[in-house]
């Protein structure tokens, strides 16, 4: 099926994607970071958090309930529809503190609350749902096991993520998934990822381009080809016509390519806090 989408003439592929996404309500979503630490070892060589730490935007610490609520309220004031409570990967059992962040935001804002926490146990997902979680945001990162472990050498596995998505679906949580383009995957592997999204039919899909950032081991890697990314995201739209289609490229060169498939979902980022003085 996904191969058939890629076989479409490019103008038809993009036109069909724009027509599908144009019928959808615009959706804005942004992060509310609860915990800046991560148990993935060795760390992922493309992780943007290393850049944030080097720039003093993050200090590798837990955030308070007041901080995440302030962040969520800022997103709400900016017109966002949802937030995703984010942490580094903390293992398969989610700490109680994360449940408290979900509950606090759910009870004090009008936002839908998702969790971006990597692959976790079904029991933890059930506890998150009881705390008020709307949906589970977990990308498969790459549809290829061969590619996955090249940029995620530690932590949860690709199969862990697939299992957690199935568990979340079983529990009645909304799903938000997708993968990255630009890690050396083949066209056949991209098509397999799109087919996987088509089988899963998540309520939201993010097929995003890899762009290297400073202060990471992959800083010298080539970024994703924007044309291939746009074609993959357009094909993903056709495979998941009922899903909100997200892009994180609202400006710069990639934004022009994003216009080719006209995603209805956008990421919203509230204020950045200044570094906390030592001591």
Helix and strand composition category: alpha/beta
Query: CATH superfamily assignment?
Result: Aldolase class I
In DSSP terms (H or I, runs of 4 or more residues), the helix count works out at 11
Q: What's the shape? A: globular
Helical proportion, percent range: 40-55%
CATH architectural arrangement: Alpha-Beta Barrel
Q: Please give the radius of gyration in angstroms.
A: 18 Å
Q: How many strand units?
A: 8
Strand content: 15-25%
In whole angstroms, the N-to-C terminal distance is: 58 Å
Poorly predicted regions are: 273-279
Average pLDDT, all residues: 93
Which fold name fills CATH's third level, the topology?
TIM Barrel
Q: What is the H/E order?
A: HHEHHEHEHEHHEHEHEHE
What is the CATH class? Alpha Beta
What strand order characterises the main sheet? 1-2-3-4-5-6-7-8
Q: What is the number of independent domains?
A: 1
Describe the 3D structure:
- The chain is an alpha/beta fold and 279 residues long.
- The chain has a single domain (2-267), classed as TIM Barrel (Alpha-Beta Barrel), CATH 3.20.20.
- 41% of the residues lie in helices and 16% in strands.
- The protein is built from eleven helices and eight strands.
- An eight-stranded parallel β-barrel has the order 1-2-3-4-5-6-7-8, surrounded by six helices.
- Strand 6 (204-209), helix 10 and strand 7 (244-247) form a beta-alpha-beta unit.
- Helix 2 packs across helix 10 and helix 4 (65-77) runs parallel beside helix 5 (96-108).
- The longest helix is centred in the C-terminal third of the chain and has 14 residues, at 187-200.
- The N and C termini lie far apart (58 Å).
């Amino acid at each position: 099926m996904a191969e058939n989408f890629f076989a479409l003439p490019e103008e038809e592929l993009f036109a069909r994607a724009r027509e599908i996404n144009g019928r959808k309500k615009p959706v804005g979503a942004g992060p509310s970071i609860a915990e800046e630490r991560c148990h993935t070892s060795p760390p992922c060589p493309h992780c943007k958090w290393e850049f944030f730490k080097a720039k003093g935007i993050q200090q590798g610490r837990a955030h308070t309930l007041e901080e995440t609520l302030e962040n969520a309220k800022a997103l709400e004031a900016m017109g966002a529809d949802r937030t995703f409570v984010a942490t580094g990967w903390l293992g398969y059992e989610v700490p109680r503190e994360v449940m408290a962040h979900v509950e606090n935001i759910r009870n004090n804002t009008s936002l839908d609350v998702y969790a971006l926490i990597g692959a976790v146990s079904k029991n933890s997902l059930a506890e998150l749902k009881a705390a008020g979680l709307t949906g589970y945001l977990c990308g498969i990162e790459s549809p290829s096991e061969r590619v996955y472990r090249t940029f995620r050498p530690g932590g949860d596995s690709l199969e862990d993520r697939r299992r957690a998505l199935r568990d979340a679906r079983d529990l009645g949580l909304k799903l938000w998934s997708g993968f990255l383009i630009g890690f050396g995957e083949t066209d056949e592997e991209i098509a397999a990822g799109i087919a996987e999204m088509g089988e899963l039919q998540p309520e939201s899909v993010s097929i995003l381009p890899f762009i290297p950032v400073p202060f990471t081991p992959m800083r010298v890697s080539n970024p994703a080809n924007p044309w291939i990314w746009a074609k993959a995201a357009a094909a993903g739209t056709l495979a998941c016509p009922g899903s909100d289609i997200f892009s994180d490229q609202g400006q710069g060169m990639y934004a022009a390519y994003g216009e080719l498939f006209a995603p209805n979902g956008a990421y919203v980022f509230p204020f950045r806090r200044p570094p906390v003085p030592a001591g």
